[in-house]
Structures are given as structure tokens and as C-alpha cells.
Amino acid sequence: MSDLPGPDTPDRVALVFWTLARVLAACAGFILLLTVTFLLLGIAPAEGLRSLWAGAFGDAQSGRWYAVSETLVKATPLLLTALGVTVAWRAGLFSIGGEGQLLLGAITATATVRLMGALPGPMLTLLALVMGAAAGAFWGWIAGWLRVRRNVQEVISTIMLNYIALYLLGWLVDKGPLQESARRVAQSDPLPSTVLFARLIPPAWSDGIATRLHSGVLLAFLAVPVITLLLFHTRTGFGLRLIGQNAEAARTARYPVRALRLQAMALSGALCGLAGCVELLGVTGRLFANFSPGWGFTAIPVALLGGLHPVGVLLSALFFGALTAGSGNLARFSGVSSVLIYILQAVAVLAVVGLRAYQALRARSEGD
Hints:
CATH class of the largest domain: Mainly Alpha
Structural class: mainly alpha
Number of domains: 2
């Protein structure tokens, strides 16, 4: 058996080396862009980087559990919505509808809890998750149906559906049937505590500070291997990826292209709807007009930076979660507007895009 040809070890070592080199180059470029950004904003680069790190991962002075839990909480809705984007875009459907699907999932979960409040807590939690995911799937299916039946481009239809969901939410919590009983603020009544996800970190572990890390985070992480198996180890997943690369080849191979596109949009919507449910039951505990800060839109660069692969999306979501948590800490202690979060996210995207552009130019020059 020892005489059988095996993998070329030097080539594998070189591949690992160059992969690490690219990651380090991206990090170095990101830090350089951060330094320039801090200087332009009048922030001392060393202090800015320290505050960013402390907000995302903690430090010896403030502890680490709270900061790490915030990073995970911020990453969770991004992870689920980015997985939804991944499924749709892998099938060649450029859905921009994650925001609307997320909102509809949260709306449906809130309505379910209100209408079925007599059920036991765990059963009601499960029902809210299922109904919210189903609502998101339906919202995505509408755009899929418009594409396969009326040839309406999903970019246009999903953007329009986003606005419908946004204004529907605004009406429901402001003078609508989901507004709080006091009718003073555009929000729903708080959900019963028995329906909410359990907290995972005891206050004793975080110096008496209550963290927001909840069991719904585990649901988001569980979705990563499930979507990986679906996309890369099932016939359906192969069909989705095939129509994304060449729909005519898929038709020639007798794959049901229309049905697969509908399935892709429905699954994408279900994941985004689930993100809204998890955020509702794990963090906010109630519905309000500005429920989402734009997770459905941020999920697009998260998915693209993750290479439209579930594992890459997980790492990208954690990176954006750390960036969001760190930026919030930096904004609090530097006096800079919270808009800094979006500036730093854009800087991160530019760092990765710049690295990939450099690699493409280098590959083209070597080919010539």
C-alpha cells in the first residue's frame, strides 16, 4: 500500500502557506485602512484599534465574556440572512429581499405568540419559529414565482417586497393590531418570558454583568452544516448550483429548473425569516418600527466575502459581528457617531475587494 501514489505534500504545504499569506495580507490591508480612517476622523489609531478589539473580544480590565457574547449576538442575524443570500445566489437568483423576509418572519412570530398565547412556552416558541420561517419562505416564493412565471427579475421584485414588508411593519405597530395595549409608542407589547430563548452565560461568569447570548445562537450555527450538506452533498443542492452556473445545462440534464428556482427562493426566505424570529425571541423581546438596522442588506457583503460558501459565511458573519460590537464600543468611548460602524464595514469590504482585485491582476499578468 505504501507504493500507491499519494498527495503531493510540498504542493499542499505551499497551498496552506499561500492561503495564510493571503489572509494575513487582507488583515494587514484592513488595519492600514483602519489607521487611515481613524486619522481622518481625528482618532488616535492605537487607541481606536484597542477600543475596537476590546469591544469585540474584551480585555483584562473589562473581562471577555460580555464582549464575546455581543460579537456572537451581532453575528447571528447576519449569519442566517447571509446563508439565505448564499442559497439564492448559488442558484443564480440575485435576491435583495433578505430584509423584507426577515421583517415578515418577525411580524408573523409576534402575531403567532399573540394569537396562540395559551400554548405552553416551549411549544409556542417552536410554533413561532416555524411560522416565522414559513412566512419568510412565502415572501421569497413570491419573488421566485414572479421570476419563473412572469420573468420579473428578482432584483426588482425583492426590493419592492422589502418596502411592502417595511411599511406593513410600520402600520402594524403604529395604530395597527400589533401595537402595544397603551397605544403610545410604535411597538408591540413585550412577549411573555416563557417564549423567549434562554440566556447561555450565567452572570457569575461575566462579573455580574448580564449578557445577551441566547440559545437561538446555537440554531444559527446549526444551520451552517445543514446548508453545507444541502448544497454540496445532495442532488437538490447540485441542481441549485448547476442552474446558477448554467441553466441550459441543467435543463439538458433534465433538472426541473423552475421548481428548483422556486425552492431556492423559498429556502432563502425561510432562513431570513428565521433570522427575524431568532432576533425577536432572543434579543428584542418585542416588535417595533425600526426592528432591523439593515441586516438583510449587510448580509449581501457578508455572503460575498464568505465566498458564497456556508463555512466562509460563518467566518464572515463572525468578522462583521466583531466589527459591529467593536465599533459600538469605539463610538461610545471616542464620542464619534454610531455611523462609524458602517464606515468600518465599508473599509473591511474594500480591504477584501482590493486584495481580490490584486490577485486577479496578478493572475492575468502571469497568464500573459
